[in-house]
Design goal:
mainly alpha; 9 helices; 80% helix; globular
């Protein structure tokens, strides 16, 4: 199933595939950058497209994220998953609250499972952070995450290409 979806996205164009994959929650830029590197996209195309795709949903999440999350928690098939996700976000708010904008930046920048722009935006809305400051912190975090993923992707693929 994932292979078919991947091939369909690439059929739409590798640039569009990178933007769309960057917009997907939990995958975001962290999945799009290795994909772009693997299919041979030049960094000067890949990096801005991945950042653009990752940032497109963020303003909407900053304004409507908490309401959307609360609504999804009421939908029968998603109640358990959405409630668990909200609890996980709430458990990570201490990491962000302690240092506010820098904490949000670091939370988004470190490419680990459960972190990223989507989670950062939802945490910012739950904490009622000022939207412009949160957007700037998330944007800077996405830029840093992109750099980390580019270095990691080129490093891993560079080692693989040796064999």
């Amino acid at each position: 199933m994932f292979t078919d979806l991947f091939n369909w996205l690439l059929g739409a164009g590798r640039e569009l595939a990178v933007v769309i994959i960057s917009m997907v929650p939990l995958v975001e830029l962290r999945g799009a950058v290795p994909l772009g590197v693997a299919i041979g996209m030049p960094v000067y195309e890949l990096y801005p497209l991945a950042i653009l795709g990752n940032m497109i949903p963020i303003p909407f999440l900053l304004f409507f994220g908490e309401k959307i999350l609360d609504w999804v928690c009421t939908l029968r098939p998603f109640t358990k998953l959405a409630t668990a996700y909200k609890q996980k976000l709430l458990s990570k708010t201490d990491q962000v609250t302690k240092y506010a904008r820098i904490g949000l930046f670091l939370f988004v920048a470190v490419p680990l499972p459960g972190t990223g722009a989507w989670s950062g935006a939802l945490i910012a809305t739950i904490l009622k952070m000022p939207k412009t400051k949160a957007l700037l912190s998330i944007f800077c975090g996405v830029i840093m995450a992109g750099i980390i993923m580019l270095i990691a992707s080129h490093g891993v693929l560079g080692v693989v290409n040796l064999f």
